[in-house]
Amino acid sequence: MAMTSLQGKVAVVTGGSSGIGLATVEQLLEAGAAVAFCGRDADRLQQAEAALRERFPQARLYTATCDVLSQEQVQAFAAAVERELGPVAMLVNNAGQGRVSTFADTADEAWSEELRLKFFSVIYPTRAFLPQLQKSSAAHGDAAIVCVNSLLATQPEPHMVATSAARAGVHNLVRSLATEFANGDAPRVRVNGILIGLVESGQWRRRYQARPPEQQDQSWQQWAAALAQKKNIQLGRLGLPQEAARAILFLASPLSSYTTGSHIDVSGGLSRHA
């Protein structure tokens, strides 16, 4: 059941064809928003759109293939969204998986690739949609950006050194953008993020399929519970994409109208920080 009504509002989700992005699109549609989402894989995008149109036949929905690391494609996507749906009031920056590597085996090219992905997947969409967000803020009194980030931003792992460092940078960027977009003469835009722990995804399902012989008799639930125990996740399981999406919906909607520059921990107790 939707937390709040978002009738008349337009939302954008990058990386919206699967996982947390798709779950966020679903919850935004359930709340009544018009939603645009993009992805790089045209087939996956088409399948997601078809399923959503069947489930939400009356919804205002727009999709487009778009590489968020191409400033030109993102600018074209932003223009198309405003033309099709109207000015955007909510932007969800959601893109990029983690890179498994230590400092010793991370090449210079890998560092550049990871840092560029994590930063510019936020920078380009934010730059492209900011004028629309400010327009929505001026008209309706609230507009928001939500960045999907990882607990690695505050609790780095040595086997994910490049991703951890990049995630920490994005964590800082959220705070900086929140300050800048709340000051000056332009209408205010709130900026927040979520910090996810281990969330069920295709990546984890593939690791389950590739599990060693001694684990072949384990069901997915058993395997995931053992992983949660090994990682010291206090709630004893992996998170669901829908659980991360609920936190995103809260931060994107007027329910969090007095919240900016902050992060919600969605890690099941994996965080070791107070």
Automatic annotation (TrEMBL):
Residues 9-171 form the Ketoreductase domain. It comes from the Bacteria. Pfam families: adh_short. InterPro entries: KR_dom, NAD(P)-bd_dom_sf, SDR, SDR_fam. SMART domains: PKS_KR (SM00822). Belongs to the short-chain dehydrogenases/reductases (SDR) family. PANTHER family: 3-OXOACYL-(ACYL-CARRIER-PROTEIN) REDUCTASE, NADPH-DEPENDENT REDUCTASE BACG. NCBIfam families: PRK07062.1. This is Short chain dehydrogenase.
